[in-house]
Amino acid sequence: xxxxxxxxxxxxxxxxxxxxxxxxxxxxxxxxxxxxxxxxxxxxxxxxxxxxxxxxxxxxxxxxxxxxxxxxxxxxxxxxxxxxxxxxxxxxxxxxxxxxxxxxxxxxxxxxxxxxxxxxxxxxxxxxxxxxxxxxxxxxxxxxxxxxxxxxxxxxxxxxxxxxxxxxxxxxxxxxxxxxxxxxxxxxxxxxxxxxxxxxxxxxxxxxxxxxxxxxxxxxxxxxxxxxxxxxxxxxxxxxxxxxxxxxxxxxxxxxxxxxxxxxxxxxxxxxxxxxxxxxxxxxxxxxxxxxxxxxxx
Length: 298
Known about the structure:
Layout: E1 4-8, E2 11-19, H1 21-32, H2 36-41, H3 43-56, H4 61-70, E3 76-81, H5 90-102, E4 105-107, E5 118-123, E6 139-142, E7 154-163, E8 170-174, H6 181-185, E9 194-196, E10 208-210, E11 213-215, E12 221-223, E13 230-231, H7 235-249, E14 255-257, E15 264-268, E16 272-276, E17 286-296
Parallel strand pairs: 2-3
Antiparallel strand pairs: 1-2, 3-15, 4-17, 5-17, 6-16, 7-15, 7-17, 8-14, 8-16, 9-10, 9-13, 11-12
Helix pairs in contact: 1-3, 3-5
């Protein structure tokens, strides 16, 4: 096993897996077998690619990812490949992220792009209907998949490139480190069904209902929440969501760090929330991200 595992400098809950260039070199040939188009059109090709990735690391990578992501004490991995060489281009990063995802489960269909993944830019100017692309507004802590019928067990975010970027650091929070967890997860309002919609850019033409807080198989709280999408039915629900939002954003236990270009955040979506800080203004600002979200294998 040639990848290294360490604790992130900002949190022992977050594990860092580093791939060396010599091991990534061994992926160039098997990755070339699969074009981006074939990965999009032929789902089975994604598993072949994932197997090639696992074999480079003696079939230990899949075991390591599954263990960390399912462990309530950890639950987040940052994968840092050594990709300074130009031979590792954006297509390589799409394939690497695809491989990582298919070592632990099946991706959901992403309605925003009609693919199993989404790629999108954050730029200086924006006319979108979502905070996702608002460069100069912080993206508050949230989980993914709140507005779709599919389960969302995990989330991958890969930084593809960035230019003229200052600020925009990643922000994550483990539910068990949140100071207000007991108070708000035990509030009866948080266990009511809320209606969740989405803006037009998400291309989802239905709404779903579910509570903010549920319990996992061990009776621990889990959360499904994003600030832009709930549609409170009454004053009680509206005021609860305001308290929830304030308590999350005021937490002193958020983990804040810059994500290197080419790196991937891979998180359990039930007990980790994620967001980002606002960028500093620059007319040439550009950041491209890749997102994959899905479910664990049974």
